[in-house]
Specification:
Structural class: alpha/beta
Number of helices: 27
Number of domains: 4
CATH class of the largest domain: Mainly Alpha
CATH architecture of the largest domain: Orthogonal Bundle
Bound molecules: 6-phosphogluconic acid
Number of strands: 13
Length: about 625
């Protein structure tokens, strides 16, 4: 592309020849009326151009089905280029032949039989909106050099860079390469600790034969096509900032950094704001699915600038898991750190789902079931409560080490990497009662006091399940009850954050990208995709209301039986407490208000006065 006289046809033909792909001159595709209009000396307007640009777009799409092609077209405006690249945003490459007005006028004047008035050329320069994402070529170079430069950018350079070859980074590299993308991989060099990590990794897998391996940051960045797409798979936290600083001197305007770690969403916004004035796009994305998901298809939750997303969309969507309709479990979530926010909530919901499974397994154990029997019970729930976490928990209970079950040998202290902590903080900051997430988080913290638990256990006698009177059906129903409340709370947190930050998040679409690839995929999540098409509040959906009503008696029985039998059941209990709270018409908060007014003159509002007036009473 470029203004008339920049040398498009010459360079285009040479390039097509060099790449051995077809060449098309856009001007040959004008419809009759455009040709007639131009022949009568009139300029085409945007309406005249629309159909023609769409024809060229169709041509490009068709040719991409084969080996691609070179099309030359002035494509002066961004809007024209948007039409030309519709549906092929990532597979189309722009080469901008750039020259000055003087340079081009002299060239035109030197051409035999070619005339263009200065005014007309000037108007082309006025119209020209320089492309941001293009291979920019200085037309004063010789055609040979120009072709060499374009070819180097197009052919030799990688389309996508992966920075950080930990477990997730490696799996994503293999996933990208398996999908036919040309990638560059980077891992730092640390003497004696991390040496030749990228090279060794490349040599391990045949699918990486075309991938490039680096431990030199500058060579890595220079191996990438511009605008560069670099995905960071490094530890969340300060490391991300150090890596950004290391990369910055090597980057150019419009390059894109994608942070695929579990970063704090507020940090993502700060990094986005820091990089924006430098012309660097920053996409924060949640990636869920663990090592296997990253390799075979994770759920991906990117956010930031939509334009930048469109530039990396093809990579992320191709490597992501697919939903039941074959659509990618990857979507543009929204602005700023919204992708990382929803990943954080995903993890909060994950904590609760895990905790609930731990709690119901404990009740099953108290009923006398051994790990194999617990596995059988959990497996029998798959029809009604199908989920990935239920499936892996079933497998966990079956795993033996020698004569004993492995699960019996694992130290009962739960670790965490901080996302559940952040979700709890975020919900407190936003004033949203995500009580189950807090409960699951604090259960992990309680578990961590192993030594104190052992010590205090000696001081308190417990019944410990001796008189437990519940059926496995009731336990399943209690579990299902708590899961609905968990999903209510998780999506409530997302919806409130979205409203507060004007992110305009689409809950149904979020549920959809969580139906596969991620840790909390389940049949309930499938149902929520439809539920959220009509409401933001799942407890207003008739089917879910009925389910909650049907399950509640079992939930009450299981929780009360657990309390009577001294079995710790924090998340299951909280699910009932929360539902009771959120469905209570008159809460006990009037007492709190009276107390606040009593000791601090904080005032209160009255039920018998809806004027919003504040009252204070002299309580003595
Ligand atoms: C996922 C997981 C993943 C990871 C978390 C768990 O969606 O793939 O959530 O992100 O398992 O790091 O965090 P904790 O270590 O806090 O349990």
């Amino acid at each position: 592309m470029g203004v008339s006289g920049c040398g498009k046809s010459t360079i285009g033909k040479l390039l097509a020849q060099e790449l051995n792909i077809p060449f098309f001159d856009g001007d040959d595709f004008h419809p009759k009326n455009n040709i007639a209009k131009m022949s009568s000396g009139k300029a085409l307007n945007d309406d005249d151009r629309l159909g023609w640009l769409q024809t060229l777009n169709k041509l490009a799409i068709k040719q991409l089905g084969d080996k691609g092609c070179v099309i030359v077209c002035s494509a002066l405006k961004e809007s024209y280029r948007n039409i030309l690249k519709t549906n092929i945003e990532c597979s189309s490459k722009w080469v901008f032949l750039n020259g000055s007005f003087k340079q081009i006028r002299e060239r035109i004047n030197a051409r035999k039989g070619h005339f263009m008035s200065s005014d007309l050329l000037k108007s082309q320069f006025d119209t020209l909106e320089e492309p941001k994402n293009s291979i920019e070529i200085d037309i004063s170079l010789s055609p040979g050099k120009i072709i060499k430069k374009i070819k180097k950018e197009l052919m030799n350079n990688s389309e996508f860079g992966l920075f950080g070859l930990g477990v997730m980074g490696k799996s994503l590299c293999r996933n990208l390469a398996n999908n036919g993308f040309k990638i560059s991989m980077f891992n730092r060099h640390v003497d004696g600790v991390e040496e030749d990590v990228a090279k060794d990794f490349k040599n391990q897998y045949s699918e990486l034969s075309e991938a490039e391996a680096y431990d030199d940051i500058s060579a890595f960045v220079n191996s990438l096509q511009q605008p560069r797409r670099i995905m960071l798979m490094v530890n969340a936290g300060k490391t991300i900032d150090y890596v950004i600083e290391d990369l910055l001197p090597h980057l150019s305007e419009n390059d894109i950094i994608i942070d695929g770690g579990n970063s704090n969403y507020k940090k993502t916004k700060e990094r986005f704001d820091y990089l924006k004035p430098k012309g660097i796009h920053f996409i924060g994305t949640g990636v869920s699915g663990g090592e296997e998901g990253a390799l075979k298809g994770p759920s991906i939750m990117p956010s930031g600038d939509l334009d930048a997303y469109n530039n990396v969309k093809i990579f992320l969507e191709t490597i992501s898991a697919k939903d039941k309709n074959g659509k990618p479990c990857c979507t543009y979530v929204g602005p700023e750190g919204s992708g990382q926010f929803i990943k954080m909530v995903h993890n909060g919901v994950e904590y609760v789902e895990m905790q609930l499974l731990a709690e119901v397994s404990t009740i099953l154990e108290s009923l006398g079931q051994n790990p194999d029997e617990i596995a059988n019970t959990l497996e029998s729930w798959q029809d009604e409560a199908s989920s990935y976490l239920l499936e892996i928990t079933t497998n966990i209970f079956r795993k033996k080490e020698g004569d004993d079950w492995l699960v019996n040998k694992i130290l009962d202290k739960a670790g965490n990497k901080g996302t559940g902590n952040w979700t709890t903080i975020a919900s407190a900051e936003l004033g949203v009662p995500s009580t189950l997430i807090a409960s699951a988080l604090f259960s992990r913290y309680i578990s961590f006091y192993k030594e104190e638990r052992v010590e205090l256990n000696k001081n308190f006698e417990t019944v410990n399940g001796a008189e437990l009177n519940v059926t496995t059906k009731e336990i399943l129903e209690a579990y299902q009850f708590a899961r609905i409340v968990n999903h209510y709370q998780g999506f409530k947190l997302i919806s409130e954050a979205s409203n507060k930050s004007s992110w305009n998040l689409n809950l149904s679409e979020i549920a959809r990208i969580w139906t596969n690839g991620c840790i909390i995929r389940s049949s309930l999540m499938e149902d929520l995709v439809e539920v959220f098409k009509n409401t933001d509040n799942i407890l207003t959906n008739l089917e879910l209301i009925n389910l909650v009503k049907n399950y509640k008696p079992s939930a009450k029985k299981v929780v009360s039986q657990s309390i009577i039998n001294d079995i710790s059941m924090p998340a299951l209990s909280e699910s009932i407490q929360f539902l009771n709270g959120i469905t209570t018409e008159y809460a006990s908060a009037n007492i709190i208000q009276a107390q606040r007014d009593y000791f601090g003159a904080h005032t209160y509002k009255r039920l018998d006065d809806d004027s919003d007036k504040s009252y204070h009473t002299n309580w003595n």
